[in-house]
Amino acid sequence: MLNITVQKSAVLKQKPADEGKLGFGKLFTDHMFLMDYTAGEGWHDARIVPYAPLPLDPATTVFHYAQEIFEGMKAYRTAEGRVQLFRPECNAARFNDSADRLGMPPIPTEDFVQAVKALVDVERDWVPHSDGASLYIRPFCIATDVGLGVHAAKNYLFVIICSPSGAYYAEGLDPVRIYVEDEYIRAAPGLTGFCKCGGNYAASIKAGEKAEELGFSQVLWLDGVEKKYVEEVGSMNIMFKIDGKIYTAACTGTVLPGVTRRSIIELLKDWGYEVIEGPLAIADVMKAADEGKLEEVFGTGTAAVISPVKELDWEGKAAMIGGGKIGPLTQKLYDTLTGIQWGRLPDTKGWVVPVE
Ligand code: COI
Which family does it belong to (predicted)? Predict the structure, then answer.
């Protein structure tokens, strides 16, 4: 149990007048959570303070060797005015898996969740009221040693910031076009593909830019060894409905184990779908499209929620999906997941955690 001190900001920011125009991750709330780690002492000085720049020495190791991890979560406001989180303990567990791979200290799950709840409680008024908008929560941790030697730091800073946000993609729930990246790779066995670390995203940016220049929303990554099997999209996991069955890459070290991904798999299995977590060759996806068997494709993610895909382009060939429209299963998954998150549907699985 953390002892969290709270220092309220003397001046509060103006809340956004039009929640329909929030975009994603552009505005930040009045406060942030900070906690320090010192080797030998552990985590200490948990505090909520006014949102402000972090003063860091230019030789701070995170700037040089990218010892950094993060999480993405949301707080939702129900029609009755309750504020709730979605499976925050899953984010805490993944955070600690990322920490372990990057040689960083873990944070006990209950402390991680307590910190998120405490900050959201202080920022309660920032949780949007409109449909589809929520308070995006970004916990992250950086190495704060000063010096240029490459080794695990002895000092870290854990930070949580919040951003009232709408849809991640400008398209909203309109289907997106995805470019299958066949030059660069995102992950390979033994590397950090399963972690949420800034370095993974840094390495993905060039491919994302190329895809955007070509008119696509994101890239679909293939496996890093053979460049043959589908893995994930830049900011979400991806699932394919082929001939009635759902296929998605297994989380065997190179794919981010998404909280939305696992929730969707649970829902699909409850509904009687066969879900195959394993290697799926991009050539087989394109073949299924040619044969009229590629019924639906959608991404899953905290930021992306459920994001329908209308086109996949690979080696100059295009697979068109669902006549450019969201498929019925994708829509049902979106409605069910967001129904639970926003409290419109009963939470029969115990996924929702109230912020009281
Ligand atoms: C999320 O879905 O929360 C993410 O962190 C993806 C992203 C915006 C990089």
Answer: Belongs to the class-IV pyridoxal-phosphate-dependent aminotransferase family.
Mutate to test the pocket of ligand 1, among 186, 302, 337, 341 (most ligand atoms within 8 A of CB): 302
Given the structure tokens 């955070």, which residue do they identify?
Answer: 95
**pLDDT given at position 234:** 85
Which residue has the CA at smallest separation from atom 9 of ligand 1? Answer: 235
Q: Which amino acid residue places its CA nearest to atom 3 of ligand 1?
A: 72
CA distance 159 to 53: 12
Question: What is the whole-number distance in angstroms between the Cα of residue 58 and the centre of ligand 1?
Answer: 27
Ligand 1 site, CB within 6 A: 72, 201, 235, 301-304
Question: Which residue matches tokens 């993405």?
Answer: 72
Which atom of ligand 1 is least distant from the CA of 136? 3
The reported pLDDT for the residue numbered 351 is 98
The H or E element containing residue 270 is: helix 259-270
| Alpha carbon nearest to ligand 1 atom 7, residue | 235
Determine the pLDDT at residue 252: 95
Q: Which atom of ligand 1 has the smallest separation from the CA of 24? A: 8
Mean pLDDT per 10-residue section of the chain, whose length is 356 residues? 97 94 96 98 98 98 98 97 98 98 98 98 97 95 97 97 91 91 96 98 96 95 98 95 98 97 98 98 98 97 95 97 96 97 97 97
Instruction: Give the orientation angle of helix 109-122 with respect to helix 88-101, to 10 degrees.
Output: 120
- Rounded CA separation 198/71 (Å): 10
Q: Which pLDDT score is estimated for 170?
A: 77
